[in-house]
Amino acid sequence: MMGGPSENPELWAFLESLHCGEILSGTVTAIERFGVFVALDDGPDHPVFPGVGFITIPELSWRRIETAFDAVQVGQRVSAEFLQFDTWNLEARLSLRVTQPDPFQTFADRTAVGQKLHGRVTKLVPFGVFVQVTDGIEGLVHLRELTSAPVENPSGVVQASDEVTVVVTEIDRERRRLVLSRWQSSSDHR
C-alpha cells in the first residue's frame, strides 16, 4: 500500500475530489500486461507509477483485444471516464470504452431475432462455436444448433475461419450476448 492521506496529501485530496462518471484527460505513459498508465492533465504526479490514471485491459475497448497495444499507444492523448479511487495503489481507475459508442448496441438496433447473417467461425469451444458476424461482434452457436443431427464435437462440422450462414436466436443487450443457430438457417428446416 502507498500510505494514507498524510504521506501523499496532494494526490489523496485530488483523488477524493473526483466523481464517478467524470471525464479526465491525459496522456498514455506506459503500457503493461495488465493495463495502461495515464498521466492526467489536471492531477499531481504519482510517487511510484508513471501516471495517476490506470485503465485495465477490459476497460480499453468494447472489442476483445489480446493486448493493450491493440487499443492505444504510448504518448496517445485519451479522455476516459473516472470509475473509482483505488485507495490501495493511490490511482484513478478509468474506462476508455465507456466514452465510445458500444458496437453491440448499434448492432442490436439494426438486427432482429430470426434474421439471417453471414459470418466467419473464429473459435471452437466444447459447447459450440463463436462466429463473427460483423466487425467486433461475435455470437455463439451452441453445439445443438450447429446441425440437425446431434454431434459430440464442433470440429466434426466446422473449422475455424469457415464462412457460415447463421440465424439470430437471441440478442441480450444487458449482457452484450448474441446467440445464433446454424441449422435453423438451412433451407430444409423452414
Automatic annotation (TrEMBL):
GO CC aspect terms: cytosolic small ribosomal subunit
Domain S1 motif: 21-97, 114-183
GO biological process assignments: translation
Pfam families given in the database record: S1
Record keywords, A-Z: Ribonucleoprotein, Ribosomal protein
InterPro entries: NA-bd_OB-fold (IPR012340), Ribos_protein_bS1-like (IPR050437), S1_domain (IPR003029)
Tree of life domain: Bacteria
GO MF annotations, alphabetized: mRNA binding; structural constituent of ribosome
Recorded family membership: Belongs to the bacterial ribosomal protein bS1 family.
Functional summary from the UniProt entry: Binds mRNA; thus facilitating recognition of the initiation point. It is needed to translate mRNA with a short Shine-Dalgarno (SD) purine-rich sequence.
The name this protein goes by in its record: Small subunit ribosomal protein S1
Organism of derivation: Streptomyces pini
